[in-house]
Amino acid sequence: MNRSFKIFIICEDVVLNNLLKKSLDIWMEVASVQFYTSFSEVKAINPGENLDCIVLDDIITGSASHEIVHILRQKKKIKCPVYYLSNAEYGEEKKALYQGASYFFKKPFDPQELMRHIAGNTKARATMNVPNNASQIKSIEEEQGNLLRVEK
Fold it and tell me: Where are the transmembrane segments (predicted)?
């Protein structure tokens, strides 16, 4: 299968990384996903990188995540949508959006809703695998539930 879509996930939480990767695989089988787990890895992203989107968790070692958004937008000149995931404490939502995040998802969030946003706002929407019957939806919910249970 042609894996032409490029999605970066910036997150150090292994469980969340697995949930996002599995959700992307279910919803958009063509997504090529790269993981970054620290600020030093993010600094190595090429300026002007051609991406479909970035999913950024609020907890990253080495920097505040809203600062990472600023670096991606201002120094790296990344233009794709940035989906910011956070507990929204201490005005984090305003900071993230002010620095250039495109969307803010408050934890806990619905992974299917995030996938609908990603697919709807990227060229991936043309190949989106929208679950179309109750058994597919139940299967996705069970898979995501199994991943979320590990975190508790």
Answer: none
Alpha carbon distance 103, 133 (integer Å): 28
**Contact by Cβ (8 Å): 127, 2:** no
- Two tokens, residue 144: 């995501």
| pLDDT 10s digits, 5-41 | 788 999 999 999 998 888 888 777 656 889 999 888 9
Query: From residue 82, how far is each of 6, 50, 85 by CA, in Å?
Result: 13, 13, 10
- Using CA atoms of 99, 101, 104, 106 in order, give the dihedral in degrees to the nearest 10: -60
| DSSP H or E run through 104 | strand 103-106
Tokens of 142: 């069970």
Q: Does domain 5-151 have CATH number 3.40.50.2300?
A: yes
